[in-house]
Write a structure and sequence with these properties.
single chain; six-stranded mixed barrel; 14 strands; 14 helices; alpha+beta; 49% helix; four-stranded antiparallel beta sheet
Length: 418
């Protein structure tokens, strides 16, 4: 491809502005829609901070226990049961016990600076599975967990609201009206990271003691589990190992039977889905629809344009131009249009995600969180090149077929347009 060819192609674009703009706009819109869908999926499922282990994560639901006659059913899982099920599984690399996020009141000791924030109970392993940036202090340690001490890690937002500074390690704050010592402050986490997100992190055991002496014999509790499988261990191996532990537990229980409510991968957890129609399959099907239907329309436009150039093809053939040169010329022209359209579409998709993230992801809290998004969200070379290649493929096919049909016909018929 040389400068002379680029000048000729640019001149042809100018002579056929309507077709060029339609083809350019169609390719740009196709890629913009596909890349936007991809970015939404990527941000929810890719291994990016502060959730760098998503591809190997499992989430255990609360579980429930019931008598054999179903006369008494109770939702929840205690620390003892969670430890029995997951604490010693060789298939797992890390295990963390936590509670779901819920709103609590936090304030300084005077109660002057008071507001409600999202609290998550967790254990020390939580800060090994999820990646937080500490501005001061440290995460919860094993000694504080074992002793059930009332300590707390605050987000920068909470620290600034209550103390107007992040240098608050050692200070006391009221968490759900309980005096609690601050041990660390982290950078705020975007609402997009559903599991890692919270404003306040506390030890589960200090704020949510198990019901040890209730009628279930200590089966009930507020615990859930986040599990990271070892590299090389399959999803099915983990599920099988957990099922064996549940069977072993039930064999030891005298009256109640324990069952897991949900046991999901990160993808299933985020999309609340466990059927055979997995979120990734839905994503692929949606991408295919958004890509193929517009690409077919673009191909139709290209075919119509080629028919208007039959006379040009016939004259070039009459003067001895080889078929290969005709192919190269028309293919290169359409490839350039596709490339320009792909770049424009990519930029449009980035603009849509940055400016429309709050409605795309269903949270008004995302309006000012564009700075918390990973740069990798806006460009994945493999996917972008794959989508671009598919658009090029459709355009190439639309060029090859009419040109091949034209070249194999007699020159007089081509020139006369028969």
């Amino acid at each position: 491809m040389n400068i002379k060819f680029l000048k000729q192609t640019w001149k042809l674009f100018g002579q056929n502005r309507f077709f060029s703009l339609l083809s350019l706009g169609g390719t740009a819109l196709t890629l913009a829609l596909v890349m936007t869908v991809y970015m939404m999926y990527y941000l929810r499922t890719a291994d990016i901070d502060p959730e760098p282990n998503r591809s190997r994560l499992f989430y255990s639901g609360p579980g429930y226990c019931q008598l054999e006659d179903s006369s008494d059913r109770n939702i929840g899982m205690s620390r003892r049961i969670a430890g029995f099920l997951y604490g010693e599984l060789p298939e797992l690399e890390r295990v963390s016990y936590y509670t779901e996020v819920h709103k609590v009141t936090c304030s300084d000791l005077s109660g002057i600076h008071e507001a409600r924030y999202s609290l998550r109970g967790c254990d020390p392993a939580w800060f090994d599975i999820f990646s937080y940036t500490f501005l001061s202090g440290r995460p919860i340690n094993r000694e504080e967990w074992d002793d059930g001490r009332r300590v707390v890690v605050l987000s920068e937002t909470v620290a600034m609201d209550i103390f107007q500074t992040t240098d608050v390690v050692g200070e006391e704050v009221l968490v759900d009206f309980h005096p609690t010592r601050v041990i660390g402050v982290v950078k705020p986490v975007s609402h997009l990271f559903v599991t890692a997100y919270a404003d306040v992190w506390v030890p589960v055991i200090a704020f949510y003691p198990d019901a040890q002496q209730d009628r279930t014999g200590g089966l009930r509790g507020s615990y859930r589990a986040a599990l990271v499988r070892k590299a090389g261990v399959s999803e099915q191996e983990v599920r099988t190992a957990v099922e064996r532990k549940v069977e072993q537990l039930n064999a030891e229980l005298p009256d109640y039977t324990f069952s897991l409510h949900h046991f999901r991968t990160h993808e299933q957890h985020i999309f609340s889905q466990e059927s055979r129609m997995t979120p990734s399959l839905v994503f692929v099907l949606l991408m295919a629809v958004l890509l193929i239907v517009p690409a077919i329309n673009i191909s139709g436009m290209v075919q119509s344009h080629i028919r208007t150039r039959m006379e040009e093809i016939g004259i070039r053939k009459a003067y001895g131009a080889p078929a290969a040169s005709v192919y190269r010329q028309l293919l290169a022209e359409n490839m350039l249009l596709t490339l320009f359209g792909g770049i424009i579409g990519y930029l449009i998709s980035c603009l849509i995600v940055v400016t429309g993230g709050h409605w795309m992801f269903g949270s008004a809290s995302l309006r000012a969180e564009a700075g918390l998004m990973n740069v990798g969200l806006f460009f994945n070379a493999d996917l972008f090149l794959m989508v671009l290649l598919l658009c090029v493929l459709f355009n190439v096919l639309s060029v090859i077929i009419p040109v091949w049909m034209a070249i194999r016909r007699p020159i007089t018929e081509i020139i006369q347009g028969e």
